[in-house]
Design goal:
homodimer; 181 residues; alpha/beta; five-stranded parallel beta sheet; 7 helices
């Protein structure tokens, strides 16, 4: 029995905002409901498919483009693709969205203030960026353009991951992207 | 019920040798047997994921690398990935194979003499290559190195596609990559 429609949930937000955490919990919930879903984590893919890319604006766009194309391959198989990438610029996210059919691209803004993300600093990257050990770090020396009208706006400094995952699941149910439980 | 183990079947051979035809028929047979499989056709992917790549040796390697990395993502989901790319050089195929675990990469040589492929010329590419309208065309002005010890050697000028598909299925059964029917 088909338990979901093909779509991509595109999680955008600063490093440390909580994209990976949400995708991990959401993936677990969706699999328990027999939805077909796969996680496409930007950091992981930079070790494999996108290992040749850096962090220039051009390379970030190429990074996003490839993840979008891979997502489409999974959509062809009926999957919900969970893509977690900083995806800093509005124009880049619009370019990605244009690769999908209407209603298949769900933009999810994973939002926390820079100060909160920097305090969390799960990978020590903000510290390195402030120390100028790494460059082009979004929020420090590169721009992040918050979505103006995301499909979902999740504030990770206000709600727990499990609450936010329930919000996403409710969205998917309301939009008939997954079957009711 | 799991009907297959994750693996990639890597179809290598000249343009016109019959890779796409075999993958199409094989995919249909495997799906009827409830195996999870997806087709990763080199020509198709050059319109999407690999649209930025040309036909230099370097670009062909990058083309193969990306298809291999995408295959790995599908293997993570339990799929049999059916990858059909000319993949002309032994060293390149060895590099791709090294990205997979032992026993997961099955090299399938789709073999037909150049003269037969050129007579079939399903996309009119040999004609264009002979007329010098396109360059770097494998078999005409670029080398194809036949596999020395492929896992399977399919001769499309001697056997019908359906016979060869049965050969592949038998191989998968013998090696316990799919469940018996």
């Amino acid at each position: 029995m088909i338990r979901n429609k093909p779509c991509v949930l595109w999680f955008t937000g600063l490093s440390g905002a909580g994209k990976t955490t949400l995708v991990r919990e959401l993936s677990s919930v969706l699999k328990k409901r027999d939805a077909r879903c796969c996680s496409l984590d930007g950091d992981d893919l930079r070790q494999t498919l996108n290992a040749d890319l850096g962090f220039s604006e051009e390379d970030r766009m190429e990074n996003m483009r490839r993840v979008a194309e891979v997502s489409r391959l999974f959509l062809n198989e009926g999957y919900i693709a969970l893509a977690a990438l900083i995806s800093p610029l509005r124009s880049q996210r619009a370019a990605v969205k244009s690769l999908f059919e209407d209603g298949q691209f769900i933009e999810i803004f994973v939002d926390a203030p820079l100060s909160v993300c920097e305090e969390r600093d799960p990978k020590g990257l903000y510290r390195k960026a402030r120390a100028r050990e790494i460059q082009n770090f979004t929020g420090v020396d590169d721009t992040y353009e918050a979505p103006e009208s995301p499909d979902l706006h999740l504030q990770t400094h206000r709600e727990s991951p499990s609450t936010l995952v329930r919000t996403v699941v409710a969205y998917l149910e309301t939009n008939e992207l997954i079957s009711p439980n």
